[in-house]
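S1.2 Input.
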Amino acid sequence: MSEAPNLQRTALNLAASGVPVLPLRRGKVPFGNCTTCADNACGGRPNMKTPGPCHCAGVCHAWAAATTDPAVITSPAWAAAWRQAVCVGYHPGGAGLTVVDLDDADAIAWAHTTLPATRTVPTTRGEHWIYRGAMRSVNAVRPGVDIKSTMSYARYLGPGTGTLARLPDAVRALAVKEPPAARPAAHAAVVPASAGGGECPHRTPAYLIRGIAMAEQRITEASSAVHATVYRTFLAVLSRHGRCGCLTDAHVTRLFTAAQAKGETARHCADAWNNARTTLGL
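S1.3 Output.
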């Protein structure tokens, strides 16, 4: 018997408690955009700033499809998605929550010695520690640890045990990267010879802005081989903009968001980014 009714029922119960939900397909990833929303042609949420369904009937725009509206969750288009779904996903940030995803025993041991106790949910390989409060989502903040909150999704694996604790500063601090080293004076700013030589082009901010916009467009317009396109795009961005400290978290988030809108997971994005850095020796 199909699990669709059970998944839909679970989703409705979560939505009734204020947790925005969405179906996840095989691979535990969101469904791809429908033909109306392909390449964000719908003009819906091109910057993925506002969660909730767009004007189409499909389960589109990755994490931003998450909703608490029972009429949407039980609509014909979503019913078809539930029949293909393997689990229920939810948008932690939309529910005012943060999930610390601990991927292995070492990560769990670290959490027990570093973070305050809170509600925990067992996962396939580790645990989700859930806190009350939202923050920026960041992957690989330390070995085996991801943070899932705003502009991200998590797999619902049950109510868990323990009482929700307030999001601690120790978790927020994990998302804060050390600022890049002070840049030399403008006349001395050069790209290392291994990157091609010449003056740093980021002395003209428009150059970097245009490069990020072109990378977003390349990912958004991919009609096939999305994994490969994302990796090649990340590689191209890092090869041109990754050596002088001009890339910021905001730039990376824009690229990850574009990739997730095409159905990539946050983990896939992080892996592709890290692989590209390794390839370039960064």
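S1.4 Remarks. DSSP finds nine helices and ten strands in the chain.
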